[in-house]
Amino acid sequence: MNKRTIQLVIVAATLGIAMGVGAYTFIYAKGASYLTNNPASCANCHIMNEQYDGWLKSSHRSVATCNDCHTPDGFVAKYATKASNGFWHSFYFTLNNFHEPIQIKARNLAITEQACQKCHSDITTAIAMPHSNAKGEAISCIKCHRSVGHLH
Question: Which of 72, 78, 128, 134 has the fewest CB atoms within 10 Å of its CB?
Fold first, then answer.
């Protein structure tokens, strides 16, 4: 075999292994379920069981799914957020390097805050939301209403 053929074999083998591992991981981790709006897919990972169980008992169960509160509007923004969160969740869970109990990150908190404001715009506009503290800093909806979407 010449040098070019060896390089092609190495590239093909590497791509094959990567695709095989990726396909296995996608199937094992029920990857297709994450493309849906089914809240049960969020509980594919045991770390989310508490949140899923809390949602099942919450007032929001009848009006909102996980995606309604935890992804932004728009097809591209929604699936970009799902892909980013999915990658990082998988990364940290695989390495067993995550905070327990799970905590929402600043970007995802902002998305959730926007969802609160959008769905409850009749209330939030009537009472000049968002509230602010003595320093003029906005107070999170979730700070006072933490158990609305997930009972704690």
Answer: 134
